[in-house]
Amino acid sequence: MKRKDLARMVGVSAVLASCFWVSLDNRVAADTPKTQAAKTPAAEISEGIVHQPDLTYHSVDGKPLMLDMVFPQSGPGPFPAVIVLHGAGPTNKGRQGCVPWAKELARKGYAGVAVSYRCKPEDAFPAPIDDVHSAIRWLHLHADQFKVDKDRIGVVGFSSGGALACLLGTHGDSPRGEGNPTGPSARVQAVVSFYGPTDFAQLHEGCLAKTKTKECPHWEKWQSTLLMQTLEKWFGGPPSKVPERYALASPMSHVANNSSPILLIHGADDTVVPVEQSKLFANKLHKAGRPVSLLVVEGGHDFEEKNKTNGRLAFAAVLAFLDDHLLAVKSGP
Hints:
There is one protein chain. By secondary structure, the protein is α/β, with parallel strands linked by helices. It has ten helices and nine strands. A nine-stranded mixed beta sheet has the order 1-2-3-5-4-6-7-8-9, sandwiched between helices. It is globular. The termini are far apart.
């Protein structure tokens, strides 16, 4: 094997590990956050923004789940909030990798919220989405304290975080239909997904087809085999044996006539999560009569980190979308 092919395969395996958070064995659910006053570490104030780091929004088995809040220093608020969700796996930068996004959003008039969530393979679905629900409800409970407008909350997610964002937009409180009748709703008013998977069964089928195609490059067959095996391990089998598990985690399965406005951003050459995932999802949202926009740019997975021009283009699109659906909309009388 050529050196460049080996390097490419190693890089792809790292991306694959960071892309998916779904495992359904031994489900673990996060409880609704408690209502005690938040313990606020010292704030960092610079360049017109206030950064409140390391705020615990929930604990699971004694381990804290944290978020960072960044909001404008001046202005009475309340500010529309935008949650930023990282990807998963050993190569992801976690919550700290999302803080620059939160700061930039704060400079534009938002409360940026970088959120940690359980994302290891052993963190069985629906643990990740339960964590994000808890973070949103924590924002509701502490809206006055942090100048957050609880009626104007959006979410931006990358890769696996994009799948979570789309689940929030299509099914609100719970993909299991349980809801949260005793506490604040976890519904959001705007969703942005960067190259997030939307139909895990279709993704599995695409991988299987590649492994059987003679013309498919060797490294891409290897990638597809690894991804297919990972999906089967996390879901407990192929889609033909456990279709309900694939459907439960797929935003495609939850599109409804009240789904939130969604912006999908995807690299045209993404070989990890093919751009067709976003195209099919956008088409289904359109047929349901829901507001949806799709931006396809040159590049593959994590395109914004490899092409700064496309990264700036994507951020401009995100900002325009959020301005339309959050900043320009005022809550209350």
